[in-house]
Design goal:
The chain has helices at 91-102, 108-115, 124-131, 154-161, 165-181, 191-203, 213-221, 223-230, 235-247; strands at 3-4, 36-37, 46-47, 142-144, 150-152. By secondary structure, the protein is mostly helical. The chain has one domain. Helix 1 (91-102) packs antiparallel against helix 2, helix 4 packs antiparallel against helix 5 and helix 5 crosses helix 6 (191-203). The longest helix is centred in the middle third of the chain and has 17 residues, at 165-181. The chain is globular. The two termini are 26 Å apart.
């Protein structure tokens, strides 16, 4: 269980990401690529918050009251700082975390074996960078979004590329709130109910996205710079790219410096 620490396509509106469905499971279709994953193990570290969740743009037909929306679960992010090039993880450690904790067929036992103890293949500092576990104060690579789903923070990654990390935190904050409000929905058996819950949560005062339009416009204009660093055809590709940018060594294109950081709250 995660403990709570709370307080693709063009983005078509504040906090909205056109055709890429960020609430689906993994897909082998690049056109439907999603950095949101239903597979993997339930982690035992702290439950941090969601920063990449964006609107799918799907029109929802009103079919009556939402049954799985729970406003009492709505929660906002604690303040995180968006940092890149932190050099806490090697490429092999980034791969090892995915294989043990997020790959289909992984279990809590395989995840714990890889991330805990003196012989862990994924050291404490690397695991913290990837997931937000203590002692990290940086926005992590993956954040829980209800059940065993997690979201790769590729939107925050994109904003870091253009040195606007505060925009990414704002989007993440609202997205996490939506995910928590719909935590009781069954995404596999009731996709329509889950989509309806998203729509309800996004319209609520508690989960309203305050990301300025200027952020969205800047993000869209910079997609040729953002996509090579933060976007991939599959969930794993999104994860690998964002993990390397956030938790690996500084990119050469960053001039050897790594801090595109900003206090997110």
């Amino acid at each position: 269980m995660w403990k709570k620490l709370v307080r693709g396509a063009t983005i078509t509106s504040v906090g909205a990401l056109g055709a890429v469905n960020l609430f689906a499971g993994c897909s082998s279709d690049p056109a439907a690529a999603t950095p949101d994953d239903a597979g993997g193990a339930a982690e035992t570290g702290p439950k941090v918050v969601d920063s990449g969740r964006v609107d799918t743009g799907i029109a929802i037909v009103d079919s009556g009251p939402t049954t799985c929306y729970d406003e009492s679960k709505a929660a906002r992010l604690k303040a995180f700082t968006v940092r890149t090039g932190q050099n806490f993880c090697t490429a092999s450690q980034i791969d090892a975390y995915f294989a043990a904790c997020r790959e289909k067929g992984s279990t809590t036992a395989t995840c714990d074996a890889a991330t805990k103890g003196a012989d862990a293949g994924v050291p404490t500092a690397c695991h913290a960078c990837l997931t937000g576990n203590s002692p990290s104060t940086s926005l992590p690579v993956v954040l829980p979004s209800g059940g065993n789903f997690v979201t790769v923070q590729w939107v925050a990654c994109g904003y870091a590329v253009i040195n606007e990390p505060g925009c990414g935190f704002s989007t993440a904050d609202a997205a996490f709130c939506v995910g928590q409000s719909c935590d009781g929905c069954n995404r596999d058996t009731d996709k329509a109910g889950f989509a309806e819950c998203q729509t309800t949560a996004k319209a609520s005062d508690k989960c309203k996205d305050s990301t300025p339009k200027s952020c969205v416009d800047a993000f869209n204009a910079a997609r040729p710079r953002i996509d090579p660093i933060c976007v991939g055809p599959t969930f794993k590709d999104y994860y690998i790219k964002v993990a390397n940018y956030f938790c690996g060594p500084p990119l050469a294109s960053d001039g050897g410096g790594a801090d595109a950081s900003d206090d997110g709250g």
